[in-house]
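User: Need the bound-state model for zinc ion:
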Amino acid sequence: MTVKHVLNDQLAMGYAAGALPEAFDIVVAAHLSLSDESRALVSSYEAVGACVMEECDSVELKSDAFAATLGRIKSSDTVIEKPGPKGVLPEPIQKYLGGDLEKVKWKSLGGGVKQAIIPTNDTAQARLLFIPAGQSVPDHGHRGMELTLVLQGSFADEVDEFARGDLEIANEDLNHQPIASMDADCICIAATDAPLRFNSLLPRLLQPFFKI
Ligand code: ZN
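Assistant: Bound-state model below.
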């Protein structure tokens, strides 16, 4: 499948090195099961990592390594990371929950929006979000990094439109209000390493209760 919004180098490198917080690791692993391009990128960083471990003479990434890896993934049977089982949730998330959507214990955030926190062993948070078709989440900024991966439906914000497999990477510079498209309920997984900065009072007051 073609995914428009993919990993950046920093995250691909962090993932390849096993250096991401668990919450980000889950989101990236789920994204990788949906994006050939991101798998190729991570794979080229893994190759660099292996080279460093083996003390190769040159650890420079060849300029064509990424294209070569992507070509290999697309043309051969070599599957670097297996795509998940059929279902809405990719395999890395299903592993955490022990199943697909039927295992998700949603909690209401109001306005039909629901969340389910995925327990992880560090301070970064991972959560599944359910946004009814046409509904928006409160507009907010970010105190750290927020990774959002669309699993069903799509949403649009100030940046672009994001559909299944697309990853939005947001940081302190971005203020946005994601709105689910009218044609389907949107389900995403989001990871954050710091509380969001809500612009209106009510979400700000409720924030501690929802750990968002
Ligand atoms: Zn955000």
